[in-house]
Amino acid sequence: MTFPYVLKLLCLCLASFFLVHLALATLISLAAPAALRFAGQMRPSSAARLLFFLRMLPAGLGAFVVAGLCVPSYLRLEPRTATSEEVGLLCLVFAILGLVLSVGSFIRGLRAIARSVQYLRYCQRIGRKTDLPGEPSPVWMLEEPPALFAIGGIIHPRLLISRQVVNVLSKDQLAAALRHEQAHWISRDNLKRLLVTLAPDPLPFLHCFTSLERGWTRHMERAADDRAVGGDAERSLSLATALVRVSRLGIAPQPSSLVAPLLAGDEDLAARVDRLLNPAPRAETHAPWMGCLLAGAALMLAGGLFALPALLYPVHRFLEHLI
Q1: What is the pTM of this model?
Q2: How far apart are CA 97 and CA 103, in angstroms?
């Protein structure tokens, strides 16, 4: 097929993103079991950051390669005199796959945002706005579901709590549960949930990051627990008791991935309660590795930016072969 100048650029961008993303996503999905074992030896906050970084790396680096290398090399070195050029079938297939991935991610993100907005408006309509001691965010009290205790929203947080939860929790237990939700807000976990929702899979309809995302969610909840209790034994006991009492009311359905509940499921409940009741402080033995990883990524980024003019020519040759 013959494409004009701009459409050819779009085709190359989509194809390049798909190839870079596919290569990195395949490597990370293969390394996911080792990464999860490695994260299990770290503090939950560091483990959550590592797993989130790995989940976002294919899409982030793919977008960087397209915006930082493909587009500049094409605009600088591709002659504009040739108004149209034939695009090979393989390049076109890669571009279509890249388009499907991008559109699918965009639709998932829009659906998550729409469900979150719709649910928050529904809760505000049927609930009653109230104030809780020590809680600066607006709280909406609802009658159903009985085990509801969550924070929703990305820019303006809203706490959603059922009356049954408030009735079964003591003052200290309620304060501990509120600190847990505040920890989610401080860490911008709902925003991270949206970014994970937007991050595509290696291929359309092929979910390869399920274990990585579950591991990230597990460590994210434990990190919120740790931030909520702050190493205090009484707070740990209060939060553990709150988790058990809320679980006895049932598991509230999660209406959207952008709503962070106190208890999303009972799969990790026993482990979370055991960590709170029997804390085992460990040194952050892998903190230097995290620092080295971030420093190495920063150096690679700086080196790539410094060598950007020299990279434009080989990148353009690659694009010529691709097209």
Answers
A1: 0.84
A2: 10
By C-alpha distance, which of 124, 145, 173, 106 is closest to 261?
145
Per-residue b or e along 199-229, where b marks 16 or more CB atoms closer than 10 Å to that residue's CB = bbbbbeeeeebeebbebbbbbbbbbbbbbbb
Q: Are 193 and 175 in contact (CB under 8 A)?
A: no
Q: Quick check: 304 and 68 in contact, CB under 8 A?
A: yes
Residue 160, beta-bridge partner list: 140, 150
Q: Tell me the C-alpha distance between 193 and 52, whole Å.
A: 10
- Dmax of the chain from CA atoms? 75
Q: DSSP character for 150?
A: E
> How many other CB atoms are found less than 10 A from the CB of residue 279?
13
- CA angle in degrees (0–180, nearest 5) for 161-144-192: 50
Do residues 190 and 230 lie in contact, with contact meaning Cβ atoms separated by under 8 Å? no
pLDDT tens-digit profile of 70-109? 888 887 777 776 556 677 788 788 889 999 999 999 999 9
